[in-house]
Amino acid sequence: MEGKLVLVSGHCAAGKSAFADRLSAELGILCFRKDRVKETLGEGLGPTGGAVYEKGSAAAFVLLEYILEECLKAGTPCILEGNFRPAELERVEVFLERYGGRCLSFFFTGDMAVLYRRYRDREKERHWVHKSAGDSPEDFAAGQARLGEKLPGEALLVDTTDFSRVDHSGLLTTVRAFLVG
């Protein structure tokens, strides 16, 4: 059985989580979100567990690696979602190669000024384990700069500057074809 991974990555506030959750619900595929794993670790350790705040993303990714490995070994398709760093994407490639898995990657992006406004609008509601992505549009853009340099498998760019222009139906069709192909 060939394992298949749908990787949803991209910039902050570009709609990655909403897209991954929608794919999961519509296709019946398990979805694991990096931020949610980090939040779960934080809830388990509590706010005094400063390590979660400082190293939560790294710890969350280690757990995602384990989940990915188990899914690939079992031939179970899964969705991983997060703002993955280059070193993390390299690790994903290692597991795909080791288990002969295939990957379809999405990179969600948009106009940085629009993404920054969205980010600031929702920042008050974010879980305490998350660090700020920047206090100015320039800091925000600088923090997003290295994301998406090299995605595994076939990679598709999704511009969400204007959500109404995103062809969600077409993206879903692409994922369905990947899963049956």
Q: Could you give the order of the helices and strands?
A: EHEHHEHEHHEH
- Beta percentage is 15-25%
Average pLDDT confidence is 88
Specify the overall morphology: globular
Task: Outline the low-pLDDT stretches.
Answer: none
Helix residue percentage: 40-55%
Order of neighbouring strands in the sheet with most strands: 2-3-1-4-5
- The secondary structure category is alpha/beta
- In whole angstroms, how far apart are the ends? 13 Å
Number of helices: 7
Counted beta strands: 5
Rg, Cα atoms, Å: 16 Å
Largest sheet: 5 strands, parallel
Main features:
181 residues, 5 strands, alpha/beta, single chain, 5-stranded parallel sheet, globular
Describe this structure in words.
By secondary structure, this protein is α/β, with parallel strands linked by helices. 53% of the residues lie in helices and 16% in strands. The chain contains seven helices and five strands. α2 crosses α3 (50-74) and α3 packs parallel to α4. It is globular. The mean pLDDT is 88.
